[in-house]
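Quick question about two entries, pasted in order.
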Amino acid sequence: ADRDSPEAGFMSTQPVLYTFVKERYPELYEEIKRRAAEGRWEPEGGMWLEADCNLTSGESLVRQFLYGKRFFQEEFGVDSRVLWL
C-alpha cells in the first residue's frame, strides 16, 4: 500500500526527530498529527532520543524517559509504552 492508501499505517519513535520536522516543515508535522488522530500514524517511543545505554548515566536515562514521554503526551495525547534499545 502506498502512503495515501487508507490501510497504510506508520510508526515513528524519537521525539527529537518530530521536533525537527515541526520546526522545519510545519505543514508536514500537521499532516503527521492528522494521521495520528486517524490511527494511521503511531507516535511511540519512551526516550527523547534512542540512546546508547552502555555509556549513559542513570540520571541521563531517566531524563530521556521524562522528556520523551512528556513530548508524546503533550503533542499527541499518548502515554508511550514502547521503548527501543
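Here is the second entry:
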Amino acid sequence: MPTKPVIELSKHVSAPLITTQSLQRVWRALRRLITIPKSWCQVSVVVVNDTEMKRLNQQYRHQSTVTDVLSFPYGEDGGEIVLCYPQAKRQAAVKQVSLQRELDWLTVHGLLHILGYDHERMADAQVMRPLEQAILAYV
C-alpha cells in the first residue's frame, strides 16, 4: 500500500488552472492540519462542465441545478471530487476572488467532505468553515 494517496486528475473541460501541481499544493496544506487515514490510496479530481455537473447533481442529490463541487467517498480508500470549472469561474467573479483561490477552496471543501466533514447543520458548519480557512492559509 502506498504511503500517500495517488492524486489523479481527469479533465473533461479546459481548466488550465487545475493541474497536478496545484492539487498537490492543496494536498500539502490539508495534511498540515488534518490526519489522513493511512488506508487512503487514491483521490481522484474530475473537472466537468455545467451540463455534466447538472446531470451528476440530479443523479446523486436529486437537484436539477449546477453545483460547484460534488464529493464521493470511497469508503476507507479515499474518494473522488468533481469540480465544475465554469461554476467556479462564475463564483470567483461574484466573490471577487481569483479563480485560483476559488478552485483551491473548492478542492479543500471537497476533500473535507470525503473526510466526513459537513456543513448542513450550523454546529457542523462552525467546525468545517474555519477549518477550510485555516487550510487555505497554507495554500
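Reply: The beta strands are 6-11, 42-48, 69-73, 78-84. The longest strand covers residues 42-48. Hope that helps.
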